[in-house]
């Protein structure tokens, strides 16, 4: 069965691009454009990996991260940070990787594959 990725990204174009990138490469992928929706989606169907935008309007990425980690089994979900602002990745020290916007799709896929043990 394909591994699932939850894309948490407030920019709908970037979210759609990431979902397409992951699906094209054999993953199940869904997107949430707001933090509260992401937490509910993760609660309903625990993803194998999360990509998390750190700067979102309704809820900062680090807070979403903490809420994801508080879910049952959430502490074992690898998180890849996606950010357009340098230094923000330091707010989530346990992330398995950080990708700066604009990002190279091969770099993103490499981080995802390593995090999923592929």
TrEMBL record:
<keyword id="KW-0597">Phosphoprotein</keyword>
<dbReference type="InterPro" id="IPR050595">
    <property type="entry name" value="Bact_response_regulator"/>
</dbReference>
<dbReference type="Pfam" id="PF00072">
    <property type="entry name" value="Response_reg"/>
</dbReference>
<feature type="modified residue" description="4-aspartylphosphate">
    <location>
        <position position="53"/>
    </location>
</feature>
<dbReference type="InterPro" id="IPR011006">
    <property type="entry name" value="CheY-like_superfamily"/>
</dbReference>
<dbReference type="InterPro" id="IPR001789">
    <property type="entry name" value="Sig_transdc_resp-reg_receiver"/>
</dbReference>
<protein>
    <submittedName>
        <fullName>Response regulator</fullName>
    </submittedName>
</protein>
<feature type="domain" description="Response regulatory">
    <location>
        <begin position="4"/>
        <end position="116"/>
    </location>
</feature>
């Amino acid at each position: 069965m394909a591994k699932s990725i939850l894309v948490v990204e407030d920019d709908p174009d970037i979210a759609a691009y990431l979902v397409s990138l992951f699906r094209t490469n054999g993953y199940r992928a869904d997107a949430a454009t707001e933090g509260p929706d992401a937490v509910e989606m993760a609660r309903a169907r625990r993803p194998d990996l999360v990509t998390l935008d750190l700067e979102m309007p309704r809820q900062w990425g680090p807070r979403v991260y903490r809420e994801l980690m508080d879910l049952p089994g959430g502490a074992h979900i690898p998180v890849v940070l996606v950010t357009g602002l340098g230094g923000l990745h330091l707010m989530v020290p346990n992330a398995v990787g950080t990708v700066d916007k604009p990002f190279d799709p091969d770099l993103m896929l490499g981080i995802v594959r390593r995090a999923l043990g592929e």
